[in-house]
Design brief:
The chain is an alpha+beta fold. Helix content is about 35%, strand content about 20%.
């Protein structure tokens, strides 16, 4: 049988005094040391959250003065800046892909359009892979890709086509009757419900590929109406602020007052639908990205000169434009443009050999810009293969003579982006 050990009250009292003494000794020593010691400067953790949001860094960049007609900052040739509210110089790490950026600059220098802009964008993330521009003949002082809008022309047919498909008014195989020439838009062609005159039947896919104004005007007047057209233009970013780390001018859609103006809006046969080249790339990217439009970003990150990160980009959604099913049917329409439509010549022979697996689509647009007094040529489109999706927006504008077509410049961009020799960098 075990015997319990007896502890006297006197011994318990001694143990209590000893415990209290050591507690006072250690706690007191810690407090004295804390008061006399210099505070520890903790080393910066690179995985800590960024200090600035996308909106905050955009506003700081927007507030910087822009001396002279050309700004090295807005041409993305200035890496070190002084941002308001930040005591140290800030280093900007641009997100551009060197191969695509260099190719874009070289092509514009080679072909010398009166005005030319090339934008390439990763459709899945919003990363701007390239943005090059030059202006030889127009009174435009800033960067035409960011700070100016131009008539969308027939590129706006992408919006109308998406509305017609999503509202189940048409699909690629729907047969549509129309009268007159392909690229005219007279009132007798679009305001009479019963088609008369030189009547033809055409599939919706072919009408998109050949950019037939009457078909899209009639769809808006007799099938869609003003409210769906307004809603889908907003979804595609017209009249909406573009959430980017650099300030981008807002695009604008027409506000039709009658049915004929609605037909003009839907077909792009108007000066009232205007967009920036950046927005053009976003439209094409949304089609490639199953209807999700991503926010564009020009910066991987921004650092203090001492090394600390103050901003880091992350892919963010601008808006959900349409359903994945609608986007899939729209890709079918845009593929027809390069295979048999208005840009077939520029892509002749492209799908042989090393680019045979690429899925490529686009939309062209042509119109005289009355504001800038030049003839516009647009191509917005996408190329994708093996999970990689690249969107491009190319704008050229000329006063008298064409030196290069936008569709051809887009083709060269796709060739560079998907070249087997190119090492692809997808990291943010």
């Amino acid at each position: 049988m075990a015997v319990k050990k007896y502890t006297s009250p006197r011994r318990l009292k001694r143990l209590g005094f000893l415990a209290a003494f050591f507690a006072i000794f250690f706690v007191g020593g810690w407090w004295i040391g804390l008061q006399s010691h210099t505070p520890v400067a903790f080393k910066w953790n690179p995985f800590a959250p960024a200090l600035l949001t996308k909106a905050e860094i955009r506003e700081k960049i927007k507030s910087l003065p822009q001396p002279g007609k050309k700004s090295e900052l807005y041409e993305f040739k200035q890496n070190e800046v002084e941002l308001p509210g930040i005591e140290e110089p800030v280093i900007l790490d641009y997100a551009f892909d060197p191969a695509i950026q260099s190719m874009s600059e070289d092509l514009l220098a080679q072909y010398k359009p009166d005005l030319g802009v090339m934008v390439a964008m990763d459709a899945s993330t919003g990363r701007i892979l390239a943005m090059a521009g030059q202006n030889r003949a127009f009174e435009i002082e800033g960067n035409p890709a960011l700070e100016y809008t131009f008539p969308s022309a027939s590129v706006f047919k992408v919006v109308t086509a998406a509305a017609a498909i999503e509202e189940r008014k048409a699909n690629p195989h729907t047969m549509i009757a129309y009268a007159g020439r392909n690229h005219t838009l007279y009132k007798y062609q679009v305001l009479k419900e019963r088609v008369s005159g030189w009547i033809r039947q055409i599939s919706f896919k072919e009408a998109f590929a050949k950019s037939i104004n009457t078909v899209f005007g009639r769809l808006a007047v007799f099938e869609l109406g003003k409210e769906p057209m307004r809603m889908f233009s907003n979804r595609f970013g017209y009249g909406e602020a573009i959430q980017s780390d650099f300030p981008v001018i807002e695009s604008r859609a027409a506000d039709p007052a009658n049915e004929y103006q609605l037909a003009e809006m839907a077909s792009g046969y108007t000066q009232e639908n205007v967009m920036s080249p950046i927005h053009g790339a976003m439209i094409a990217a949304a089609v490639a990205n199953d209807g999700v439009m991503m926010q564009p970003y020009f910066l991987n990150a921004a650092y203090l000169k001492s090394g600390k990160t103050i901003y880091r980009s992350e892919p963010s959604v601008q808006s959900k434009v349409m359903s994945p099913e609608t986007a899939g049917e729209l890709r079918t329409l845009m593929q027809a443009t390069v295979m048999s439509g208005t840009s077939r010549k520029a892509f002749h022979g492209f799908f042989r050999g090393k680019f045979s697996e690429l899925e490529v689509g686009g939309k062209t647009g042509h119109l005289t810009d009355r504001n800038h007094k030049g003839r516009i040529d647009w191509f917005v489109g996408f190329a994708q293969a093996h999970g990689r999706k690249i969107a491009v927006s190319v704008l050229t504008m000329h006063k008298k003579y064409w030196t290069v077509k936008s569709s051809y410049l887009a083709r060269r961009a796709f060739e560079t982006a998907f070249s087997p020799k190119k090492v692809v960098k997808n990291d943010l």
